[in-house]
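Bit of a strange request maybe. I'm writing a small parser for structure token strings and I need a real example to test against, not something I typed by hand. Could someone generate the tokens for this chain?
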Amino acid sequence: MLQAIRSFCQSTAQPVPQSVGDIARCCFESLSLSYWSTRDALQSLTSRQIRTLRVVGGGCLNAFLCQMTADACGCNVVSGPVEASALGNVMLQAVATGALPDIRAGRAAIGESLDCLSYAPHPGSSWIGAQARYRVLEATSSSPQKE
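Reply from user aminoacidic:
Good idea to test on real output. This should exercise your parser:
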């Protein structure tokens, strides 16, 4: 995987990460920009502004990733729960068996049972240049390859 990341960076005329820290930073920035791009696409498709992102699963445990995502997206990020899939399954079973009246009540019960962390974007953190470069790479990477 390390070589694949380096090769992609080299083939797209980006700085090639050398150290483990450089590779990790590259991955975190790429994930954050991917979240930004997806959020942007969803806003365009729905004509609605998305002011908060929820990060669930293992990624929600990484405060660095959550803060970087808030900064890249320019919106609040709420992290948790880690076991969102399992909790959702249990909640739906509780609704199906009548232990909870509906999904809204199930969501409320889960929300009251867990502590989630919130991350606000840092003022003045500018990702505009990185977003522009990401758009170019995204367009290039999704184009059909000539053989």
